[in-house]
Write a structure and sequence with these properties.
310 residues, 28 strands, 6-stranded mixed beta sheet, mainly beta, 0% helix, globular, Methylamine Dehydrogenase, Chain H
């Protein structure tokens, strides 16, 4: 593994720890039901927190499995992503159970939505239509806040799929074995474009007049490491969460025990590490949330959510 740092951007302030998690914060969003809270996937559980108080909605952060049920009796196997359908229902990607499930926040109950939960699918379990099959669903994105369908990234089948919420119909937008696992997604607010993290790369998905293409933006297809510089020179450890800044730069959670936040400048086509005065290391960053109105980024990592202004 390379540990070569060409450039870095240093922040003056230390991050503020917003929440102490039990496990890995795989996804986080502003809570639609209680906007002063963050809604988070703490590994196998869904919680809401306002820094001072935390409420478990369903699941158990430290115990996985598959069980439909109430509150802490329900079981998931890595909630890798979710979409808040409204203030009362959340659609989650139950990653290792290979399905999508709905959480009723009022009743604190769970139910299957799509896929074959706990069937333990294998590579090639890729079926579209009204009875779809998934292999390691990863993240959900409400593109352009349309509310009618979602993008679903699927790590196991290396695909991006469209999930129509009312009809429960699934359509594969793009599938490629060239880039490895397709993980987290972010959308460009100005262009018909997605950014997707994969094994060692950040990918760009362009959607123009019904024609979709996927290309590598930065990183190496087969080599991981810590290398900043031009996009062609960039190496990632294991990129996960992506956030888009107000000036259309990308922040990437580069996951490892000594991980990094990486900043991708789409105008200069360069990558830099985001560092504090004392260190560039972040302990296993998984997810990112950009709070545009206060110019703050929150980092979901191993056993913590930390927020950094600026």
């Amino acid at each position: 593994m390379h540990h070569l740092l060409f450039c870095r951007i240093t922040f003056g302030d230390e991050p503020v720890t917003f929440y102490r998690a039990e496990s890995s914060v795989l996804h986080l969003e502003v809570d639609k039901r209680t906007p002063q809270n963050l809604l988070l996937a703490d590994n196998h559980s869904l919680k809401t927190t306002n820094e001072k108080y935390t409420t478990l909605i369903v699941g158990s952060a430290l115990s996985d499995g598959y069980r439909e049920g109430y509150g802490n009796l329900a079981r998931f196997s890595h909630i890798s992503g979710f979409y808040q359908m409204n203030t009362t229902h959340v659609l989650v990607a139950d990653h290792t159970n290979d399905c999508l499930r709905i959480i009723d926040r009022i009743r604190r109950t769970t139910s299957q939505f799509l896929g074959n939960c706990n069937h333990r699918e294998v590579l090639g379990s890729h079926v579209d239509g009204a009875q779809p099959r998934f292999f390691r669903p990863m993240s959900l994105l409400n593109y352009r806040n349309n509310g009618k369908w979602l993008f679903l990234s699927e790590a196991g089948n290396q695909a991006i799929r469209q999930v129509y919420l009312e009809s429960k119909y699934v359509y594969t937008l793009i599938r490629s074995e060239k880039y490895g696992e397709l993980r987290n997604m972010a959308e460009d607010p100005h262009l018909e474009r997605l950014y997707v993290s994969s094994d060692y790369q950040i990918l760009q998905v362009n959607m123009n007049q019904g024609y979709t293409t996927i290309t590598a933006l930065a990183g190496s297809p087969s080599t991981n490491g810590l290398r900043d510089g031009s996009f062609a020179e960039t190496q990632f450890l294991s990129p996960r969460g992506i956030a888009v800044t107000r000036d259309s730069k990308l922040v990437v959670a580069d996951n490892a025990q000594k991980g990094r936040l990486r900043l991708l400048d789409l105008y200069t086509l360069t990558t830099a590490s985001l560092c504090l005065k004392t260190t560039c290391d972040v302990n296993q960053p998984y997810s990112l949330l950009m709070l545009q109105d206060v110019n703050t980024i929150c980092i979901g990592a191993q056993q913590a959510i930390s927020c950094l202004a600026g």
